Prior knowledge:
Elements: H1 20-28, H2 34-48, H3 55-58, H4 73-80, E1 87-90, H5 96-103, E2 111-115, H6 118-128, E3 137-140, E4 163-165, H7 175-188, E5 194-202, E6 206-210, E7 213-217, H8 220-234, E8 238-245, E9 264-273
Parallel strand pairs: 1-2, 1-4, 2-3, 4-5
Antiparallel strand pairs: 5-9, 6-7, 8-9
The protein binds S-adenosylmethionine.
Domain Methyltransferase: 87-192
Pathway: Secondary metabolite biosynthesis
Keywords: S-adenosyl-L-methionine, Transferase
Amino acid sequence: xxxxxxxxxxxxxxxxxxxxxxxxxxxxxxxxxxxxxxxxxxxxxxxxxxxxxxxxxxxxxxxxxxxxxxxxxxxxxxxxxxxxxxxxxxxxxxxxxxxxxxxxxxxxxxxxxxxxxxxxxxxxxxxxxxxxxxxxxxxxxxxxxxxxxxxxxxxxxxxxxxxxxxxxxxxxxxxxxxxxxxxxxxxxxxxxxxxxxxxxxxxxxxxxxxxxxxxxxxxxxxxxxxxxxxxxxxxxxxxxxxxxxxxxxxxxxxxxxxxxxxxxxxxxxxxxxxx
Length: 275
Ligand SMILES: C[S@@+](CC[C@H](N)C(=O)[O-])C[C@H]1O[C@@H](n2cnc3c(N)ncnc32)[C@H](O)[C@@H]1O
């Protein structure tokens, strides 16, 4: 195991990384198109990179379709369009997943966003030009450490969340951390809750050291194994729909993948609580 130089996941140009489903968000929600959008994206990315040096920023992954390309996206929209449905975006970063839903007509006043790094969320207002319109409440917290049971910011969320978004988030933790984080998500859920996201994986599941700590990359089997434990330890039942996909299917370019080992994969998941 070795620590990698973060410049390995920095691409200077946007190239073909901005996909139509996200161009739609900037056009519809932010009123930004064409060259104005392009120079705007460069300016914001420059400010975002030093805030964590994550691949999701360096490789422009915040411009990928993400959950918009999931076959379950219409079902996800149906869930969050229900009256008073509540949405929580964990490790929200710039908050593009919430803006995706907003651009599809989902009201932002029932959205919550949580991140350990508040500057990314603040930059998100600039990125999407929606300060004053984006009503989501931001929770500045370490999701593994915050006292969910005793912290008032979670009162409207405990046992009440309809959709938990966790894109490129849970894999940042080691196995035990992921178990703990998922159990915390269960604590916020109710029957019908969906946990949706995507993250990097490896065909041979294993732990890695990264600048932010130990993380565990799943394959489909290890992901299912982890979720069997989550269900057993929380006495809840969930339908776990998880698939391993090629990272090019997310819209990543071959040159974005060079720093990764050959057995890289993407893990997409939609996990729905039955009882
Ligand atoms: C790889 S980025 C993903 C951001 C966004 N969800 C996306 O898909 O682009 C991971 C995010 O998780 C946040 N994060 C890392 N550890 C965290 C923790 N323990 N609690 C809350 N947020 C955390 C980081 O600050 C960062 O914004």
